[in-house]
Known about the structure:
Chain A is of the alpha/beta class. Chain A is built from 19 helices and 27 strands. Chain A has a 7-stranded antiparallel beta sheet with strand order 7-15-11-12-14-9-8, with no helix packed on it. In chain B, a hairpin with a 2-residue loop joins strand 7 (about 195-200) and strand 8 (about 205). Chains A and B meet through helix 1, helix 3, helix 5, strand 2 and helix 6 of A and helix 1, helix 2, helix 6 and helix 7 of B.
Amino acid sequence: xxxxxxxxxxxxxxxxxxxxxxFLTCGSVDDGKSTLIGRLLxxxxxxxxxxxxSLEKDSKKFGTxxxxxxxxxxxxxxxxxxxxxxxxxVAYRFFATDKRKFIVADTPGxxxxxxxxxxxxxxxxxxxxxxxxxxxVLVQTRRHAYICALLGIRHIVLAVNKIDLVGYSPKVFSxxxxxxRNFSLKLGFASxxxxxxxxRYGVNVMEKSVxxxxxxxxxxxxxxxxxxxxxxxxxxxxxxxxxxxNRPNLDFRGFSGTIAGGRIRPGDTVVVAKSGKTSKVARIVxxxxxxxxxxxxxxxxLTLADEVDISRGDVLAxxxxxxxxxxxxxxxLLWMAEEELLPGRQYLxxxxxxxxxxxxxTLKHKVDVNTLEHLAGKTLALNExxxxxxxxxxxxxxxxxxxxxxxxxxxxxDRFTNATxxxxxxDFSLMRATNVHWQALDVNKGARAxxxxxxxxILWFTGLSGSGKSTIANLVEKKLTAEGKHxxxxxxxxxxxxxxxxxxxxxxxxxxxxxxVGEVAKLFVDSGTIVLTAFISPFRxxxxxxxxxxxxxxxxxxxxxxxxxxxxxxxxxxxxxxAKAGQIKNFTGIDSPYxxxxxxxxxxxxxxxxxxxxxxxxxDYLRDRGYLG
Amino acid sequence: xxxxxxxxxNPVMLYxxxxxxxxxxHLAMKAFYPSKPxxxxxxxxxxxxxxxxxxxxxxxxKRLGLDxxxxxxxxxxxxxxxxxxxxxxxxxxxxxxxxxxxxLDKYGFxxxxxxxxxxxxxxxxxxxxxxxxxxxxxxxxxxxxxxLWRVYNTRIHKGESIxxxxxxxxxxxxxxxxxxAENIPIVPLYFAKKRPVVERGGTLIMxxxxxxxxxxxxxxEERLVRFRTLGCYPLTxxxxxxxxxxxAIVTEMFTARTSERQGRLIDSDEKASMEKxxxxxxx
Lengths: 629, 283
């Protein structure tokens, strides 16, 4: 192979020195975002000839700029948006200058696309907020600034675009800047630079323009090339979320992941955040040989000096600056799904490499993203932001989001649709969890169950109102008691008279109702008792939540499957009649859904035989599986 | 990549033999070292790939000691689908898109790595790194999961799958610099050499075997050419170049003014064609 030419060497050397800046552009419809990005790509000569040719062709067909090239067409990728003339999703664009490489997240401005903006912001260090000089600071400008601050962006460029359309007026510019600062002061950005621009004519994009002699600051590109956004992750405490345990053979056990903070060398002591076990780093293993040191952002495999129990989801950390370990914390939550948040419902929370069941225990307040006002609320709808207390099923290791995005940012996943429904930014640990330990008592569940000569279990009856849940559950309890078993029946109506009398029948209240019943049932199981519950419990998520509260063989779901027509005929309490007349709201089967169980242990078809037969079948089921001693 | 290995039951790496695939495979070797990547490679063979690509593919799998699955849409072969008579659009649909779906269903893969990059094409700029596909492999650009930080939602129902694009944020220049820096082996077709080519519709097509029939007025010429992108040989245009080393290619790159997909004939078939193909399940 030939020796590289001097020209190439110089080129490669320059490439290596280039730093990367990830930024996002946000603005309202028609502020000229796409045009600005197209302009940057065009002026930095990142457009190839064939792309240009197709741009000229497209400009004539779809363009909105007359004879000039419509740069927005370069970046509006998807067919639907071309037709509507709006950017819908987040698009990533790449360009480079002699000094820096850039990744631009182009995000939409509409309020309904707040989630897309948050997505773009989560991976950016700087935001360019566009303002139409003719319109000034709008409600959405404030929203964009708030979301940027919420997602931890510390550097802002206020691009006052279309300055040509206001006659390059310095007065208009300075009024807009003053107006914006008035609001942004509260958000505490580290740097904020305002630039008068015309994306369409390239004014102050690449170079400072003669059109704005009154403007003393840098051009947009000059600023982007030189702004220092280094969050100094390397100087933060060491964090390695373990992604994968690397075990090629019995002699090698390594822990792979991307370092989320700090630096590490062989010989350094690390602590497993959750268990508190410590060890020393033996080697930093890579394909290209062992490393003397690795820093934040490096993907590495560590081996340790001692055999320590570590698995995916654990965090290795600096022992003198440990992350918080707690199952309760406060966080900002941005809701991203059509279906609204239900406090008390169980979601999956993924933070770093750990995934745990979690619920919002309290929605403290909602935030009006346009005014920053705190509002009271019971749920969060799409694109709403709230401040919540969280409770997780197992403790998590984390840092406040403002200290480390990778160990403080999480997503929530719906357990049934698997959709990503929210993004969360942890504020602080609620110390309760670390101070109140579960009391390990000497007389335990096993001892109590042995004394009763049975295995504790929850028999969870679910089905429509009038399906026969209570009737059958009652019969089962009589039979068990006759055999000398210790039981307790929790009935929907009875619980609502006492424990849950503060709850109504909205979706949120139904979730809380089942959560409380689940916790009570769990305590009964701990006492060694066979618990029978008769609740409509219409949602799969909540039934699953209870199932996971107890051991794998301590939950038996009994689906009392009676067609709604039959339930209506029976109508023992006259409720269907009232619901149909509109006198009862949120009645399951009428104007509130019932989600059929997918994997119930037992399904009972009540129309085919008498309750007595079904009750005996359930008792037989328990005996066959050893619950009755 | 390790995220996928840790979270999915049955992942696979789609290996197209091109330079991006070479880089992706190299990254996998590094990511799991000292283990081997815990998934097989799979090549969806249209039967119209360059012969040198096939040789390189077999040699690479052997050298790295990895399992290689080669899938051909036999039904398409029986129907006699080929890029000359069937048109590039039908050929790609049957031999690539459908074939890929067949293969993913046959082996029940729940995650598939691909070497696509966001800088390649407009609709790919909006692709996620973890891209959700329905049980029928369809991609719905309006119903994608938001992707925040480096936290990827990997949960799927049975039958659904995820396509994963680890090179999303790489540019063509990044790929070449990395190949140069790490000395990654690539198919020799990327280097300039005298090759038999036919000029057809303004594009230089290499006559790789006798299945390519000449049209009236066409002649085969020996020209010094190389390829910036590799696909089926009748659908891949060569460029005239004397860059016969990696250094020369990178040098040529930083002065280049034509984007790489121009060499692909399938993209210009119809407007927004890539987006349509992706909705149907093409990578």
